[in-house]
Structure formats: C-alpha cells, structure tokens
Amino acid sequence: MRRSTSIALPILLGALLGVGGTFAARPHLPASPTVQGLRVAGERIPDETDPRLWLEQRDQLLKARPVELRHGELRFETTFGELGIGLDLEATLAEVQAVGHQGSAVRRLSQARAARRGEIDVAYRYTVDHHIARAHLARYASALAREPVNAEIDLEGHRKIPDVPGQELDVDATLAALVEGAGGESPLPLVSRLVDAEVTLHDLGDIDVSKVLASFETKYQTFKVGRSHNVELAAKRLNGLVLRPRQTVSFNDRVGPRSLEAGFQQAPEIVGDELTVGIGGGTCQVSTTLFGAALHGGLAVVERRSHSRPSGYTQLGLDATVAYGKVDLRLQNPHSFPIVVHAFTPQPGIIKVELLGGTAVKQVSYRYGIGRVEDYVRRITVKPWLKSGKSFRKQKGTRGMDVHSHVTIVFEDGRVEERQYYSGYRATPEVFWVAPDYDEGELPPLPAHAKGVEGRLAEDGSDVYPTAG
User: Where are the alpha helices (DSSP H) in 208-336?
Assistant: First the structure.
C-alpha cells in the first residue's frame, strides 16, 4: 500500500501544477477576436480593427484588381470580379480568428507571441461564382478553339495524312488555375485541352482502297470554264474524305464556303426560279454525283433535297442540291468498315465518285414515277438597257412535277432494303427579256406546256394566248 501511494502522489502534484499553470497564464492569453500583429496574405491586420470589415475591404480590392489571362500568344485583360472570383469571407475569417484562440494555453500563448513577431501569415480562402465565371470565360472560348483535322488518304499520292487534334478551352481547369494563382502576379493561364479528330490515323489502318463499294458518274461541259473549274475544285475538296462506321458527314463542311476567297469562280446557278450568275455554280453536280454513289453503296441519307428543277446531268430523283449554310447533303456510313471517297475526273467532262473500302452491296435497282405535273408560265421582264424593239429568250420553261423514287438494295449478306423518297420540282417560267417599247405580238407563240403569261392567266385556268402545236 505504501508503494502505491508514492507513485500516485507525483501524478497528482503534476496535475495540480498544470492546472495552476493554466490559471497563471490565463491573464496573458489573447482576448480580442484577432491576435495582435497577425498577417493575412502578407498584410498586417491593424490593431483595434474589425477583422470582418477589413476582409470585406480586401474582397472589394481583389474583385477590382486587373488580371491578364494568357494562352500562348493570346492576351486578354479582365478583373477577378468579372471572373466571379472573390474572397471566401467566412472561411478566411475562421482561419484568422482561430490563431491564438484554439488549443492548449501554451499553444495559444505561443501563437500570440509568434503573431506579434510577424511570423504567422494566414492565406486567403477564395470562392468562385461558377455561373459568372463560365459566362465570362465563354468570351475567350472561340479564340482558343481549333477544329480537329481528320486523317485522310491521299489517293493520288498513295499515302495517309495523319490527323491533327483540335483544341478547346478547359473551363474547369482554368477556374482551378485562376483560384490557385489569385494571390500571385498576373498573367494567369487559360487552360486548353485537346479534342480528338473523328477519324484518326489508326482508323485508316484497315481501309482497303482496292475494294469498290459503289461508284457513280455524271457529265459536264468543259467549255463552260467557270462551272468546270467549280466542279473540279469541289471534287478535289471532297476527294479523300473518310467515313468511319456510323459516322455522319456533311458535304458543306467538307467542301467549305463557295466564295472567291475559297477559290471558286462565277458560273450559272439557279436562284429562285431563274438561272443567274453566282459564285460556285456547278458544285451541286458534285453533290449529286456523291448522292448517286451513296445510294448505290447503301449509305444512309440523313439530309438531301432535290433541285427546284430537273437536272440535265442525271435522272429525275437522283439529284441533290446544296447551298452553303442553307441546304446540305449529309450521309452516314452504316457499314462495319470505314469508307474513303474518291472524287475525280477520269477524263475531261466526267466527274466520278467512288466509295472505296469494302463490298457490302450486291445489287441496286432504281426507278421513279411522276405524280402531279404542272405547266409553266411565260415571264416577260422589261430591261431598260435593251435597244428599241429588241427581245430574247433568257430561259427555257420547264414543267413542275412530283417525283416518287423507289430504290431496292440487295446486300451481300442476303438482306433486302426498300427505300422510297420524294423530289419536288417546281414549274420554271419561260423568261423573255424585252425592251421598253417591245411589241408583244413579235414574241413567238407560247410553247406546248406553257399555260399563259405570268399575271394574265384566264380565271378558269385556260391559256390566254395560243400555244404552239
């Protein structure tokens, strides 16, 4: 019993001394919410200052602070406030008030002395309004954006052209970098990430250009120089296009805008219901030839529109008109193998499209029927610049009609697919340009399928003027 008492006594005395030490140190412990001399982000909090009000002032200064955002050679000027970045007042205040006010008496005294010596510096805590930040960063997205370039096969050069990854703004990574660098110096980074191409060099590894899935060709007149140039340029742009399984491609995206800057020339084209001169005329013949090959190759037709009038270079229902930014031809590859488009001119005056890569279609038959037929009108347009008494036929009239196409596709695996689609061709007026003093009696009789002069048809729909037999 005596031995137990001798062991317990020092423990009891130590506890009493510890308690006594705490009571003795209590008058020296920091009493205010903030210990004197405490620094926040390198700046000393003034004595007798409300720390919350002081931090609110720092928050306003931060939000007004200019910052430069940088990505490579790109530079953008903004502020932290416009980026939605500010101080997290509650979190920062909690960190500030914890110094010298938590833990044992010895720890609290030690922190108070260190703070007075300027040895404790509390870091700011930041907050981000993600709605504001994303809306503001969206302004820079287009400047950073770079579309990926698909891998291609250069059929003439018998080589594969590697893909080039694209680039886009990585908003989340940029926000993280901005918050991390908010306490430092400008500039701060705009972070981007790579965007993979839809068709990579790896995707081209199993393409067998010796196998022809389907082909289609049309003829054009080489003496029409501008139109011929446009046909050949559009074919060159289309050539080498790769469609991987289930991929959808756009003719307009591939060929690009039809402009002088893009290399296209002026040529006749249809605007409304009259033939006129525009830039890129002839491009539709290339889209038509591609459509014919796609139909015979069993490709899925996602978007296609017929011309406003029948095309002289292909059958009714086998045409496909395009207008950049308005009307497109879009196709999807439904097969298990990638397809490469070979668009070329095997000889002057012929545009041909081959779909290479495999054999999946055994036989294709195409037929069409004509439904409603509409006669056309004669349009007389006065041209003040024509010499007195002069007139000439600017455009031949064509009848409008509804065409219903039927396609039967027999695949190599025995499947048979029936497709039906519609083409609507509007009646195209016969157009005469005449001088102001023209004599209508001098114009030739109305053709067989002209129902009268535009604006002067009989109420019962009969011809006002006689027609040729």
Answer: 225-238, 251-255, 283-296
pLDDT tens-digit series, residues 274-290: 677 789 999 999 999 99
Give the Cα separation of 342 and 236 in Å (integer): 9
Beta-strand relationship, 188-189 and 66-71: parallel
Between the two ends of the chain, the Cα-to-Cα distance in Å is 142
Per-residue pLDDT reduced to its tens digit, 135-158: 999 999 999 999 999 888 877 766
pLDDT digits over 364-395, tens only?
Answer: 999 999 999 999 999 999 999 999 989 999 99
Give 235's pLDDT tier (boundaries 50, 70, 90). Answer: very high
Model pTM greater than 0.70?
A: no
Per the document, the length of the chain is: 469
State the Cα–Cα distance between residues 337 and 245, nearest whole angstrom: 6
66/60 Cα distance (integer angstroms):
12
Q: How far apart are alpha carbons 455 and 449 in whole angstroms?
A: 17
Strand partners, 431: 379, 395
Output the furthest CA–CA distance in the chain (Å, rounded): 146
Which of 342, 242, 326 lies closest to 284 in space, CA to CA? 326
Long-range pairs for 7-12 at CB < 8 Å and ≥24 separation?
A: none
